[in-house]
């Protein structure tokens, strides 16, 4: 069974179910037939049981004739037939009911009774009705006895009902057997199939937990066995790939940390000496002042680059603890935009903030991380928006989120930028580097921080072609 293909295993299960159902059904029908033969005429009466008694009862009526018109003869009439399934009426020559077990007359008048019912079998009121006339010596009608009966199986006593119920269950037994044996054999089939699937499920959970030190102990020459073998091979390849990726990642983190460590101290010294020279510049050394100003500006850029790389390294290696606190978001955003108004005016860029009327007055979030996200996104927009351009910052309040949309009138993202701009160290297409190089960490850090705040970052372009960065966080 273990080495059978799934198709063969399914066919075997189906044939076993069918064979078991047929065998059980045949045995049940044989037993039911034996039970019916035993119960017939004992507990179950045949369909024509009362019809067969009509001739005997009619002979009795003709023998008794007019004496039956007396209610005192009712017991004798009752004893002329067997069972309780036959009803009767005794009427006089005018059709008036004298006595009987059926009080509803099936005829409209005496004329109809003696013209249409006498010595005939008719069907009225759901019964077969046979009428035996009672005559005078002169041949005139003195009355009649009407016999009512059904032509259908009846029961002699309560045991007949029990036998009938058993026979009905036997008749329906194929359906019950089909359900029962299907459940039984499908459970066996499922057990054979679920064993390797359970192993694969546990293996998937271990992979999710980054645990690749396990074995799948299942071997079979069928689809499931081959699936387990392929899964084991995939696990080994994944283990090799993850190991190589981990080593590359560790090397890249180490390089970034080393670069940050090596540049931080000398750049800080250069910045300190530059500030000292700028504070004590001789009057006749204007050229030296211009050079030192350029050195200072570039040193500040280098220092910011080092700090950004160091922050990205810390964020990636161990994460940063969240410190949520109540924050007046309108005041916070107004102040943040105000911080960028001066560099925006220097480039001739219009910087606008759009707040909805129903923005929450106070939200709970990490203000420092939110500020860093905004700094990175707005700085990027300022860098790539040309003079005379525009940067619009919109905020949308949702049920459990705040959504920020920062759109500029710059060159926008190239198609390949839209796929990789959130990756670490990605510097993008030339269209977004027209103003000089950058670390490739701004949007990466923004995305990582947004994730820590329970949100995410999306990038795209406006219809006019400018860049549009959307991020959100939970509140």
From TrEMBL:
Topology relative to the membrane: Multi-pass membrane protein
Q: Note whether Phosphoprotein occurs among the keywords.
A: yes
Matching entries from Pfam families are given as: HAMP (PF00672), HATPase_c (PF02518), HisKA (PF00512)
* Endpoints of the signal sequence: 1-19
Boundaries of every HAMP domain copy: 191-243
The molecular function GO annotations come to: kinase activity
Q: Where in the cell is it found?
A: Membrane
Its EC top class is transferase
- All residue ranges annotated as the Histidine kinase domain in the record: 258-475
Name the chemical reaction catalysed here.
ATP + protein L-histidine = ADP + protein N-phospho-L-histidine
Would you say which domain of life the source belongs to? Bacteria
Segments traversing the membrane: 161-185
**Is Transcription regulation among the key words of this record?**
no
Query: Which keywords does UniProt give here?
Result: Kinase, Membrane, Phosphoprotein, Signal, Transferase, Transmembrane, Transmembrane helix, Two-component regulatory system
* Family matches, as SUPFAM superfamilies: ATPase domain of HSP90 chaperone/DNA topoisomerase II/histidine kinase, HAMP domain-like, Homodimeric domain of signal transducing histidine kinase
Could you tell me the EC number(s) of this protein?
2.7.13.3
Query: What's the protein name?
Result: histidine kinase
Which species is this UniProt entry from? Blautia caccae
